[in-house]
Design a protein that fits this description.
Number of domains: 3
Distance between the termini: 8 Å
Shape: elongated
Oligomer: single chain
Helix content: 40-55%
CATH class of the largest domain: Mainly Alpha
Number of strands: 14
CATH superfamily of the largest domain: Transferase(Phosphotransferase) domain 1
Strand content: 5-15%
């Protein structure tokens, strides 16, 4: 990537530089004029004209050498002098001015990125820079910089563990507010004649400890004792919804939770909004479908949540799982009730014009990922639907968004939460290494996050395909061709060959490099240069070259500190703006 000279501190050099071609032209023109006039003038006048002309030519040569020197070498010298003189040099502003000049007109006198970084390093090494950066806070905000500060992983983890202890103590205090309910035998007597006979039998069976709500007025699901294959009539019989619990609004779950709304569902089960009559609060209950293949998914999420809660109990970066139970052969998980998802968020918000707000959400997601990484957990299904907002956000220090749904999560090397070899992650957010079956790490989650951030900024889908081959083709359109070594290592390289010449069902032909991040997200002004660099470092083909969650939290787009550029990996971006 080349960054041309522009109107920044080196503008003094650019404005007075004359190319060799122009210099020769002016010298020839001067000599021609001189010859014409000398032939017509007297001897004394001729002598004066010769002296003036020679002086003009020497002055042009001297001026051009002084200001421009020998192109790169003298240019670098002058730039270094300027940087030494300006302790308040604003690197971000300068980079944006250079980019702006590149858009307006292409200059032949280019700095490579490495040369520019070397020159800028001299300015950043000035001991006065730290104070100057703080004093220029308003100027940073003008260029979409938010001063979150440098992120220290060890300090963050230590402080968060202390916070988790406080949150757990606060959560446990709610036990004093609980409703004691009545015993199952009391409920059987009290509701006799108002509940169906099978529920009276259930209450008298000894499997129910206490009753808080019985749903007397609900249209009860009928039980059929002879229908063993259909869970005695409690589950759906049709093939499409096989194993799904036949809940009804206003009825109870486990004689405690009142069903008030359907929140969503999928392959593994459904999530219901309920009133917990024990604690008089609204929560969410996830009812897993009742068939054997679901058991593995159930235990995976349970084991991951247990692993998180053992180290970070009641962490506010993740959805809180308060308890679990089994009801009529369905495993149920109780979660805190959250609000809208990141998908709903970017559907109503305009992050293009409010980049600082986007940074705050991204920062909170990254901190949650840092905590998962300390436990060796790979989420494996990062997507907007699995990032939810709290219902209320009164404390500014609390996360604005939480990570949820650990049904596909795993821990490398663990026996209880083994990592699937393939078919993880929702297609739009699936990383290249997963599609190529190369093995994956926590870096695959970082790819997913990069796509999510692109969507949040754009307000719609960012990289999306109708099939896995089309998804790979869509990635190549924006990121370019993958490194040859990645394809050679893959035993699923056929997906690459299908993707190179992929034609969609509607007849559209995809081709590598057709678009770019810059074009897709309309990053056509220098104001978004830091954001572009941030996104490029997440969407790398090779997972080794991607930023980790800690690296991302120390990127200048997040920290607002330009000196943090020196802490980032210095390999060349694979994607050119």
């Amino acid at each position: 990537m080349k960054i041309p000279g522009g109107q920044g501190p080196l503008a003094v050099v650019d404005q007075h530089c004359v190319s060799v071609e122009k210099l020769v032209f002016w010298i020839i023109l001067t000599i021609a004029v001189l010859v014409i006039f000398i032939g017509r003038a007297k001897m004394k006048v001729r002598f004066s004209l010769v002296l003036v002309s020679l002086s003009a030519i020497l002055l042009m040569l001297y001026a051009n050498t002084t200001y421009c020197g020998l192109r790169e070498s003298s240019r670098a010298h002058v730039a270094s002098t300027i940087f030494d003189d300006f302790a308040h040099f604003d690197r971000k502003k300068y980079l944006m001015e250079l980019r702006h000049n590149q858009i307006k007109e292409k200059s032949k006198e280019d700095f490579t990125l490495e040369e520019l970084e070397e020159l800028v390093g001299k300015a950043l090494a000035n001991p006065q820079m730290e104070d100057v950066l703080i004093s220029h806070k308003n100027e940073f905000e003008k260029y979409n910089l938010t001063l979150f500060g440098h992120f220290n992983e060890a300090e963050f983890v230590t402080e968060h563990k202390k916070l988790c202890i406080e949150l757990t103590e606060k959560f446990n205090r709610r036990e004093k507010l609980l409703n004691s309910g009545i015993s199952a035998k009391q409920a059987a007597m009290q509701y006799s004649g108002r509940l169906p006979i099978w529920e009276i039998d259930e209450l008298q069976s000894g499997t129910i400890d206490s009753v808080y709500f019985a749903g007397i007025k609900a249209n009860k699901t009928k039980r059929f004792a002879a229908n063993i294959t259909n869970n005695f009539g409690f589950d759906d019989a049709d093939e499409e919804n096989k194993g799904r619990y036949r809940w009804t609004l206003g009825d109870h779950i486990n004689y405690r939770f009142e069903v008030i709304k359907y929140l969503g569902g999928g392959t593994y089960g459904e999530v219901l909004k309920v009133i917990d009559h024990k604690f008089k609060e609204e929560v969410a209950v996830k009812m897993l479908n009742n068939y054997t293949s679901i058991a593995k998914h159930t235990m995976t999420e349970y084991n991951i949540l247990t692993r998180i809660n053992n180290t970070y109990p009641n962490s506010n970066f993740f959805i809180r799982n308060t308890e679990n139970f089994k009801f009529r052969n369905h495993f149920c998980m109780v979660f805190e009730l959250l609000a809208e998802s990141a998908y709903d968020l970017y559907d109503r918000e305009n992050f293009r014009t409010d980049e600082n707000s986007l940074k705050r959400y991204v920062s909170d997601i990254l901190k949650g990922m840092v905590l998962l990484n300390t436990l060796g957990i790979i989420h494996n299904d990062m997507k907007p639907d699995n990032l939810l907002l709290p219902i209320s956000h009164k404390n500014e220090n609390e996360p604005k968004i939480k990570v949820m749904d650990f049904g596909l999560s795993c821990v490398k090397g663990s026996q209880t939460t083994k990592c699937p070899e393939y078919y993880i992650q929702t297609r739009y957010y699936r990383s290249p290494e997963v599609m190529l079956a190369l093995g994956y790490t926590t870096m695959s989650d970082m790819w997913s996050l990069g796509v999510i951030i692109g969507e949040m900024f754009r307000g719609s889908e960012f990289i999306f395909g109708e099939s896995e081959a089309d998804q790979f083709a869509a990635v190549m359109e924006i990121v370019g061709l993958p490194p040859v070594e990645l394809i050679e290592r893959s035993n699923r390289r056929k997906i690459y060959y299908e993707a190179v010449c992929y034609e969609t069902k509607k007849g559209f032909k995809r081709r590598p490099y057709r678009k770019s991040i810059t074009k897709t997200l309309l990053l056509d002004t220098p104001d978004h240069d830091l954001f572009l660099d941030f996104l490029q470092r997440l969407l790398r083909w090779d997972p080794i070259e991607r930023m980790s969650a800690v690296d991302a939290l120390n990127h200048p787009w997040i920290t607002g500190d330009l000196k943090d550029f020196s802490k980032l990996p210095r390999e060349k971006p694979l994607i050119s703006p």
